[in-house]
Design a protein that fits this description.
The protein is built from seven helices and seven strands. The chain is of the alpha+beta class and 196 residues long.
């Protein structure tokens, strides 16, 4: 059993990150058992947290339907026990993907991150966003703390053919089109990136 950390934004991104750094898809698909992404959010101080009714605008900022809010939520106030911050300690929120058979198949087929994310959601994955909202609804953290720590869903999904990226690394400036890439090589075509 080996535990490792990989710099990625979320659990589905970890799988594509492993592929991007050059690990063969058959190794990733057959050896990976569980992928977990974690964020820490501030825990509201139990001594001074303040109950309040959030506005529709506040709920809209985090994507909560007002009809799903079971009454009041809590916000930070501040007291001597929490040094007037309103928060005391931190709480982890998680996003986990057990590697099911259909996910392994997608990895073997070199699927993109969106396909892996969709399959994970179909298998019951709770996103970081959903985990954060659950902690807001149970009064453990605030809307403000949750907004800072869990990623918002993308508003506009672009297909790989619509994407063209310009970026600079230690070798030069590159223009990349298509799906995710390896350093200097387009992962889908095997062709070198085009210097600008």
């Amino acid at each position: 059993l080996v535990f490792s950390t990989v710099h990625a934004n979320d659990a589905p991104g970890t799988i594509t990150r492993l592929l991007d750094i050059g690990i063969a898809p058959f190794l990733v698909g057959s050896c990976l058992n569980l992928v977990m992404a974690q964020r820490l959010v501030r825990r509201l101080c139990n001594n001074c947290k303040e109950e309040y009714t959030p506005t529709k605008q506040e709920l809209g900022l985090v994507g909560l339907d007002p009809s799903k809010v079971p009454g009041k939520l809590y916000k930070a106030k501040g007291c001597a026990e929490c040094r007037n911050t309103g928060y005391k300690g931190r709480l982890a929120i998680f996003e986990m993907i057990p590697m099911a058979r259909d996910l392994r198949k997608l990895v073997f087929e070199n699927a993109n991150e969106d396909e892996i994310r969709q399959a994970s959601l179909n298998n019951g994955m709770e996103t970081l966003r959903e985990a954060g909202l659950a902690r807001v609804l149970d009064g453990t953290t605030s809307i403000e703390s949750r907004r800072k720590k869990s990623p918002q869903p993308a508003k506009n999904k672009l297909t790989p053919k619509q994407v063209a990226v310009l970026f600079t690394d230690d070798i030069g400036t590159w223009k990349v089109t298509g799906k995710s890439v390896l350093r200097g090589v387009d992962r889908n075509t095997g062709l070198p990136r085009i210097p600008v």
